[in-house]
Write a structure and sequence with these properties.
Elements: E1 4-7, H1 13-27, H2 34-40, H3 47-56, E2 58-64, E3 67-74, E4 79-85, H4 94-100, E5 107-111, H5 112-119, E6 123-133, E7 136-145, H6 147-150
Amino acid sequence: MRPVLRPYRPEDCPVLAELFYQTVHGVCHRDYTPEQLDAWADGQVDLAAWDLSFQAHTTLVAEWDGVIVGFADLRQDGYLDRLYVHRDYQGRGIATTLLDALPGATLTHASLTARTFLERRGWQAVREQQVERHGVKLTNFVMMRRVADARL
């Protein structure tokens, strides 16, 4: 079975915010401390701001048997802003399907958790960096997709 991708709809926003929270806390705990996870995803998403950004970007929603299981959004300049797959649906090719559907993605800031996934798909870590969220530092990586791999 493969995920079904569709364009984002504003009514998806609360579900995507919850999926984001569950994914960060349920998948990234191997790479980040509980304090870092709470700073990254505190459960207090500004839904109006997220909706505006989803509508301004190319945003795809992945469904599995009618259930929203992932999403990704791409800015017009090629920046992959978000790519998340629900913790209960990891390892089913959903993130790959979303990424493949956004061939213009050439730059992102990837978590420790996402780095290996992206490297296996032709992305390179340009540099490691520390970002601050709610006064807590988190490590992530500026990553670029090689142009030959971007299928522009």
